[in-house]
Amino acid sequence: MVFPTFKMLIAVKEHSAQVHGKLKENQQNEVSMAVRTAAAIAHPNIAFIKYWGNKDDLLRLPMNGSISMNLGTLYTKTVVSFRDELHCDTLKINDKEINGEALTRVAKFLDIIRSMSAEPRFASVESVNNFPIGAGIASSASAFAALALAGSAAAGMELSEAECSRLARRGSGSACRSVPGGYSEWLAGDDDQSSLSISIAAEDYWDLIDLIVVVSESHKKVGSTAGHRMAVTSPYQQMRVESAPERLLECRNAILQRDFNRLAEVSEKDSTMMHAVMMTQNPPLFYWEPLSLDIIKTIMDWRKDGFPCFATLDAGPNVHIICPASVSAALQQRLDKIPGVKEIIRSNIGGAAVLV
Ligand code: PMV
Fold it and tell me: Are residues 93 and 133 in contact, defined by beta-carbon separation less than 8 angstroms?
């Protein structure tokens, strides 16, 4: 799919003004504000250098920078409509009415949009994903990147890519990396203004594939928002954060030089370091399943034998296996033969979040 540029697509569909209400005594019609709607598509991303732990939980300012690639085959499409008749924000995900914590999180995010714009009304949010949510494929990243873009446009704002990335970060940290296209680096920053993501290489710069081995589709028990808060309780977190700049440099250079082995070594190490922190924080978080570990070890062996591939895991048991596009069919055949592997989702690299 070829996406038009971010700026070209900044356009808000304003439906024709609705006339409602009865004729007033003075015989004048009461005309409501238009329903304002916008829709956006954003891709989830997989991090090579991971984000884990905040120095400010409310603003979601991360303890360390991170680098990821967008997953072009997977997407969230979100439609936001600000309407007169609503008495609260509403949320539908994959056609299902959602209440509780997820709705509260979205409503708080819409509050930020309302505070930035001249739009005071409540909104309906309808979101569709083409991949399993809450199981280590960063659905909150694509969800809040799409919501930031559609919500701000529906509220009448034309945000720059940087402004949209900052806004998306407030919903879910990793969402700020799904706003720019291709390979994205989140500059940790130290305040709201300086913490945002930029594209370090476009999606056509280097043709990598993510083969996601779905170990479990069930929703994770402890989400990343709660997990980030407890990262500081691990004795390894400080060491991980302090050494992150070296790995960021190594990862950035590996991408810019299209050096697969270098990217593999640093990414695998960084993923294991993040999971070591997760497993040793209080309470401990074990996202890996036995099958996840079997796959990680198999992938390491294959790479030792000269097959270009590496494994990385986010906050879930599913294993993301990254490889050059040229070997992805052969790799998929090998993976299909691993006992217990049920489903493999294949994604190429993706572009920026766009209005549709
Ligand atoms: O954006 P969050 O709060 O869902 O955190 C995501 C954290 C990891 O996926 C585990 C790592 C990352 O950098 O994406």
Answer: yes
Name the 3-class secondary structure at 259: coil
At 256, which helix (H) or strand (E)?
Answer: helix 237-256
- One-letter amino acid for residue 11 of the chain: A
From 68, 186, 224, 320, the mutation candidate for ligand 1 (largest count of ligand atoms within 8 A of CB) is 224
Q: Which two tokens stand for residue 228?
A: 């980030």
Cβ of 315 below 6 Å from ligand 1 = yes
Cα–chain center distance at 195 = 15
Domains and CATH numbers, the chain: 35-355 (3.30.230.10)
Distance 209 CA to ligand 1 centre (A): 20
pTM summary value? 0.90
Digits of tens for pLDDT over the chain (356 positions)?
Answer: 333 333 333 333 333 333 223 323 333 333 356 889 999 999 999 999 999 999 999 999 999 999 999 999 999 999 999 999 999 999 999 999 999 999 999 999 999 999 999 999 999 999 999 987 655 566 899 999 999 999 999 999 999 999 999 999 999 999 999 999 999 999 999 999 999 999 999 999 999 999 999 887 766 677 888 999 999 999 999 999 999 999 999 999 999 999 999 999 999 999 999 999 999 999 999 999 999 999 999 999 999 999 999 999 999 899 999 999 999 999 999 999 998 887 899 999 999 999 99
